[in-house]
Amino acid sequence: MRNFWDLFIAASMPVLKVLLVTGLGSVLALERFDLLGEDARKHMNNIVFYVFNPCLVSSSLANSITYKSMIKMWFMPLNIFITFVIGSILGVVVVQVTRAPQHLRGLIVGCCAAGNLGNMLIIIIPAVCKEKGSPFGDPDICHTYGMGYASLSMAIGAIYLWSYVYNIIRISSSRSSKEIEIIHSPLSKSHSPLERGSSTELILPSNDCITEKEEFSEQKTSFGAKAKQYLEMLSRKINLKSILAPSTTGAIVGFIVGLTPEIRKLLIGDAAPLHVIQDTALLLGDGSIPAVTLIMGANLLKGLRGSSSIDKTIIIGIIVARYIVLPITGIAIVKGAIHFGIVAHDPLYQFVLYLQYAVPPAMNIGTMTQLFGAGESECSVIMLWAYGLASVSLTMWSTFYMWLVSS
Fold first, then answer.
1. Name one Pfam family in it (predicted).
2. What's the predicted TM-score (pTM) here?
3. Alpha-carbon dihedral sign for residues 81, 48, 319, 150
4. 2-176+222-334+345-406 — its CATH code?
5. For 354, phi and psi rounded to 5 degrees?
């Protein structure tokens, strides 16, 4: 009983810290203080996105990534992929059960599929390592490897998020806008296919718009021109710029430094001649956690102010999918991987794999709804409830996961 209580304290302290800093962010966003207003959040978010997060990811991976650790962590990308697949299936079930409107379907599937695999882990893991009741051994070693796991999780999660969820929300919002156009434009049927497709041409190019003359000229184009055209279209569809976000670029740099012995000797370690560069990156990266948490609190305030008429069953469905069904499924998957020897017997690594199934929805989904102008207010309400209940859910699941990896 005492051991369980120690684990509960160790699991609840990080979540409590997150709640306190999140609450402070919400207070600072109030009109009375206006320290984290819309403009301030935008500028602060840019600093986090372009400076703090890339430094944190690159420095953490450079410290912890070696060929040996890469062999151990190969299952993590697959594990994250499984969370997206199962979450998507659950999201489709929620859409069918609640009969959600078209413009919210992509948002619902996205919230069920994509968890906050970066910032939440980067916040929770270091705090768990420092707690006395933690089952992960020496705090410094735990912190070093834990940040490596969390950074890799952030990089892989960002790739899946911007290549998969981004397109789900894009397609859902574009279909919704087309339905609205048809409803409000009864003469739209008489328009040419080119006119009807022009509003979405940049988002999803239409093949029906090609005339006979264009087809004839296309046959004459060289293979290189066709390949270039295809790559440009693919780039527009999957948003390569977002996939290669600064955090992902930082992860690539971290891998290069960690896996190249010559560069590693120059940058990593107190005796390294250029260790000041790594120390500077670590210093900048340390600003990521408090900044992200403050921004998260300020953003959640929009959910309190929002006057959205979102159906309560949709919120309940997302909560049940993310905080009950997905974590239970995750236990079976990770346990199975451990049983068959796919996952190494490292308690911290196993804890991170479990936790990837229990985190709340990714905050960047809100950015996507703003980008496409579909479901923005509903997303704020969903995030408010999801992150409000995450304080209870994460504490309970973290306690149970710690008990699993320590037993």
1. Mem_trans
2. 0.77
3. positive
4. 1.20.1530
5. -60, -45
